[in-house]
Specification:
alpha/beta, five-stranded mixed barrel, about 25% strand
């Protein structure tokens, strides 16, 4: 089966890859013009190439959109030659995820309002791509069956305070209350739950209570909805943003598009899709909100820090990974009374003696030394470098 035929099997589906982040927590490997999404952090393929590859059974590359920035659009176009250049949109200004998600909806709504849009961050890793295709396929069918929003919930493995949480509601049968199919041919293979509410990055006490309850999932940042559903949700919950995006869409594929995009897009509110749409929509109540959660049970990791990369590359149970040394790209390594360290030092012989839980990353012009526990704070280094005018290191 060809790429085109595989994609056609799932109807009108337009994946949108969000690739505008700067990846500051992966400094010094990640820089403004070479952010983590265009780096090969866990193999030969870059993060964004891996993202596209696992989407190809669901849609041809010609139907994929990428939202990024001017610093990265050229290298992304080189890395994704199958994606049409006009489908790689460079934001004139960073405006968080709501305008980026909604932009695709307003561009597609006038010509193909029933098209299901899937939102996929460019920095995820998935170890079970077959299950990923199965779950996303079920989500596409569900999102296409009405004014429904589909979110993917990652089964939590720890009381993580860096993720948003989804409180799960009632189990949904394969057919909706009006008799329409909930998830088509995938009924029974992919369980469906209603969503009660979203909670952004709780404190430790709340996170522990959420995980202990067994009724919460991490918000993995993967969403599915028709172009019409998302555009209407923006009109309802972000009324000031909607006419701006409509103006941009009206100029699409005209000689004025670049100018209009550059002038109008920065006027959009800087807000995440969670705050802009998901939270106010869920406030309507579990039955009225029409938000559904499918399980992201395909061995997901978002690679948000050096600590998460350590866990991913260690490739074992979390408790075991916490004790494992990972020496990435090195010539060889020796460890004596050392555990839980991550070292990136290409071509070097690395010796670890009596050290625990360190992160050491060497590049040609910089050296990072921190701990796994503090790896979320690496972005502060970039902020400090910017503040002191060290732009050559950013």
């Amino acid at each position: 089966m060809s790429e085109q035929e595989r994609g056609a099997a799932h109807g009108n589906f337009a994946p949108v890859i969000l690739a505008g982040g700067s990846g500051t927590r992966f400094w010094p490997r990640s820089r403004r013009t070479r952010a983590k999404q265009v780096l090969a952090l866990d193999g030969e393929s870059t993060m964004i190439q891996q993202t596209l590859e696992r989407l190809l059974p669901l849609a041809p590359a010609s139907d994929v959109w990428v939202v990024t920035n001017k610093l990265l659009d050229g290298v992304i176009a080189e890395q994704l030659p199958g994606v049409p250049r006009e489908n790689i949109l460079s934001e004139p200004a960073a405006r968080n995820t709501a305008p980026a998600c909604a932009l695709a909806a307003f561009l597609l709504e006038p010509v193909a309002p029933e098209t299901v849009i899937g939102i996929f961050p460019s920095d995820h890793v998935i170890k079970n791509p077959a299950r990923f295709v199965e779950v996303i396929g079920a989500g596409i069918a569900l999102a296409a069956s009405g004014e429904r929003i589909v979110v993917l919930g990652v089964p939590p493995t720890r009381a993580e305070t860096g993720y948003g949480y989804i409180e799960l509601g009632a189990v949904v049968s394969p057919t909706h209350r009006d008799g329409t199919a909930m998830n088509g041919a995938h009924a029974g293979k992919v369980p469906v739950r209603r969503v009660k509410r979203f909670t952004e990055k709780p404190n430790r006490e709340k996170a522990e209570a959420f995980v202990a309850s067994g009724n919460y999932a991490w918000n993995g940042g993967i969403f599915l909805w028709s172009a019409r559903t998302l555009a209407n949700a923006i009109r309802e919950h972000c009324p000031a943003m909607a006419p701006l995006l409509e103006k941009i869409a009206a100029a699409h594929k005209t000689p004025d598009f670049d100018r209009v995009f550059a002038e109008v897009y920065p006027q959009c509110e800087n807000i995440s899709i969670d705050y802009a749409v998901l939270e106010p929509r869920s406030a309507k109540g579990e039955l009225q909100a029409e938000i559904y959660c499918l399980p992201a049970d395909f061995a997901w990791n978002d690679l948000g820090s050096w600590a998460s990369l350590h866990e991913h590359v260690a490739d074992c149970a979390p408790l075991e990974a916490a004790l494992k040394n990972v020496c990435d790209g090195v010539k060889s390594s020796v460890a004596i009374d050392a555990r839980g360290n991550y070292v990136f030092a290409p071509g070097k012989v690395v010796a670890l003696v009596g050290v625990h839980d360190l992160v050491v990353v060497e590049t040609a012009d910089a050296l990072l030394i921190t701990t796994r526990e503090r790896s979320q704070d690496v972005g502060k280094v970039v902020a400090e470098l910017k503040a002191t005018g060290r732009d050559e290191l950013v």
